[in-house]
Design brief:
1 helix; 8-stranded antiparallel β-sheet; elongated; 8 strands
Length: about 140
């Protein structure tokens, strides 16, 4: 598998429609995605001293974090509105290979910062709510 450009890892936000149309959250300089799961331990005395886990059980989640330069795009404004209201909405992650992942996410953190003579920066965190699917 060839290396992929980090700049091609895009975060997109839905427009609230059904089906949703997605717009790229502009100005991102760094993005990160984490997939995690919680295991269900089913070890018994018949396990021979080895831990056993139940396949398909437990909880799974996807966390996304990003940071960049604030551009005032409509997608950024929509994202800020979700952060202030605690609204869960549709988001899409897009990769250079053409792979996409979609799911519903909650904005759990949105930070703004800036220097006196510099640009306005932001950092955000999203947590999945429900299934995240690969397209």
């Amino acid at each position: 598998m060839p290396a992929e450009k980090g700049s091609a890892f895009l975060l997109k936000i839905g427009n609230g429609g059904a089906p949703p149309q997605f717009s790229t959250v502009a100005g991102m300089r760094a993005t990160q995605m984490s997939v995690s799961g919680e295991a269900v331990n089913i070890t018994s005395k018949d396990s021979g001293g080895w831990r056993e886990l139940l396949s398909g059980a437990g909880t799974r989640s996807v966390a996304v974090s990003a940071s960049g330069i604030f551009t005032g795009s409509a997608a950024e404004t929509r994202l800020r509105g979700h952060a202030l209201s605690g609204t869960i909405d549709d988001y899409e992650l897009s990769f250079e290979s053409g792979e996409r992942m979609r799911g519903r996410f909650l904005v759990t953190r949105l930070d703004y910062s800036g220097d006196y003579n510099g640009e306005r920066n932001y950092a955000l965190s999203l947590e999945s709510s429900g299934a995240v699917t690969s397209l």
